[in-house]
Known about the structure:
This protein has a seven-stranded parallel sheet with strand order 3-2-1-4-5-6-7, with helices on both faces. The protein has a single domain (3-244), classed as NAD(P)-binding Rossmann-like Domain (Rossmann fold), CATH 3.40.50.720. The chain contains seven helices and seven strands; from the N terminus they run βαβαβαβαβαβααβ. The N and C termini lie far apart (56 Å). The protein is 42% helix and 14% strand. Residues 7-8, 10-14, 31-34, 37, 53-56, 83-87, 108, 112, 134, 136, 178, 180-181, 183 line the site of nicotinamide-adenine-dinucleotide. This is SDR family oxidoreductase. Keywords: Oxidoreductase.
Amino acid sequence: MKTALITGGAQGIGRAVAQRLRHDGWRVAIFDIDPEALEEMREADPAMLCMPVDMGVESQVQRGFDALRDWAGDAGLDLLVSNAGIADPVSGPIEDLSLADWRRWQDSHVTGAFLSVRGAVPLLRRSGGGIVLMASTRALQSEPQTEAYAAAKGALVAMTHALAVSLGPAIRVNCVLPGWIETGPWQKASARREAQHSDSDRDQHPVGRVGRPEDIAGTVAWLASDDAGFVTGQRFVVDGGMGVRMIYQD
Ligand code: NAD
């Protein structure tokens, strides 16, 4: 049985990835900062390892990997999905952005990816596994006042090709760039909300709808499979075509 670690796996996209991999027969471990969401996951599926970890804090990540090594045993790890991070892209006007807030975005996304990769590589080497980093289309295009998030996601795209070159042939490394993904139905029960989209929300996507966490989970499942065995160092935009739509303003 294959084993995966998903950071930020207790809600949203990470939760859908966890659910998809469980459905496909994987053992799944989750590191997440939200204890309530973790408890829900643990109750729903006691076979999962659900660890409270802030991915931006080195000591917590180390504690998480200690628990993971005990839990996984000799099986090691076949897949790391580094997905955790502050999902809100708006950091406000650049001249008002504090260094502490800038660092919050970088720590949760970039430092978290670094610490999770560093911890996972010895375990992945045993099984010849793979890594998927969760970037964003905001690594390539922007709304105003999203510099901290865009910089963090751009860093993940760059880390992907650097890691692929360093870690091959043993480990394949790719990143996914989701577009607009509606995570309301995938939050913990106390924060769950139904998706509500207008015609204009749907129409700006050439596929005719807003994305779902299951769309990203399917891409991750493919990247983790042998069908993607010749794929490394790549970035995959999964945005329903929103990013290729040309806009002429009136
Ligand atoms: P979400 O808020 O629904 O879920 C994120 C999960 O990560 C939560 O369970 C949260 O508790 C956890 N988390 C946050 N910071 C953490 C930390 N420091 N350490 C450990 N866990 C932490 O968010 P989401 O929309 O599912 O986003 C998941 C990833 O996908 C993020 O990296 C986000 O930037 C990226 N992404 C999301 C979208 C989108 O439209 N939803 C688009 C592009 C990229």
